[in-house]
């Protein structure tokens, strides 16, 4: 009996699957919490995966 195949997820090569990180700005606010900003990967826009585009044959040409 044939086994169904699952699609493989392509992990972003720029962030290696860690698309969103928090970066400390140094110092604390008046409540004592660290000041941080959230940064998203510019290549995958925070999804962690990237689409791989392939050339399609149209009329016999790539």
What would you note in describing this structure?
The chain is mainly β and 62 residues long. 0% of the residues lie in helices and 26% in strands. It is built from no helices and two strands. It has a two-stranded antiparallel ribbon with strand order 1-2. A hairpin with a 5-residue loop joins β1 (20-28) and β2.
Number of strands: 2
**Secondary structure tally, helices:** 0
Task: Give the proportion of residues in helices.
Answer: under 10%
Please state the overall shape, judged from the principal axes of the Cα atoms.
Answer: elongated
Features:
62 residues, 0% helix, elongated, single chain, two-stranded antiparallel ribbon
Quick structural gist:
The chain is mainly β. The chain is 0% helix and 26% strand. β1 and β2 form a beta hairpin.
Fold blueprint:
Blueprint: E1 20-28, E2 34-40
Antiparallel strand pairs: 1-2
């Amino acid at each position: 009996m044939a086994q169904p195949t699952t699609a493989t997820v392509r992990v972003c090569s720029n962030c290696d699957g860690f698309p969103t990180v928090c970066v400390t700005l140094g110092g604390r606010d008046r409540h004592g919490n660290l000041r941080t900003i959230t940064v998203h990967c510019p290549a995958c826009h925070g999804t962690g995966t990237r689409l791989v585009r392939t050339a399609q044959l149209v009329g016999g040409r790539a």
